[in-house]
Specification:
This protein is mainly alpha-helical and 134 residues long. The chain has five helices and no strands. The radius of gyration is 22 Å and the shape is elongated.
Length: 134
């Protein structure tokens, strides 16, 4: 298989971009996008490792001698479901943080928490930062 190693470079670059987005950005939605890019890189890496040269699907047929192993693909299907659940939970938390703080920038949320601790409002209203309601 000529040029098959390029997929590993692509996967590496995708994972580095995702990791950089998670580390460098303060916006919670951008962090989730970076996490998804990193996850896609890991998925592609496992799928690339499971590819067998001249391998066929593991269905017994006459004349087929080389089969690809189905386990990496099955594991990735499970990981995709977990990734979707993680992303939806992260987005739900980002919405709740926005409702509570009015921003999804990590630095501003931490700053408002520290200001609330200094003012003593965190103890009075249950940690809602002065927000009224249940």
């Amino acid at each position: 298989m000529t040029g098959g190693h390029y997929i590993f470079w692509f996967v590496f670059v995708l994972m580095v971009i995702g990791l950089y987005a998670v580390i460098s950005h303060g916006n919670l939605v951008k962090k989730l996008i970076g996490l998804n890019l990193f996850q896609i890189g890991v998925f592609m890496f496992y799928i690339a490792l499971g590819k067998v040269e001249d391998g066929r699907a593991p269905i017994v047929e006459e004349g087929v001698e080389v089969y690809s192993h189905p386990l990496p693909h099955v594991l990735i299907l499970t990981a995709i479901v977990v990734g979707v659940a993680t992303t939806s939970l992260g987005l739900a938390l980002a919405i709740r943080i926005y409702e509570a703080y009015g921003t999804i920038e990590e630095d501003e949320v931490i700053e408002r928490d520290k200001a609330a601790e200094r003012d003593g409002t965190a103890e009075r209203d249950g940690g809602r930062g002065g927000e009224a309601g249940p």
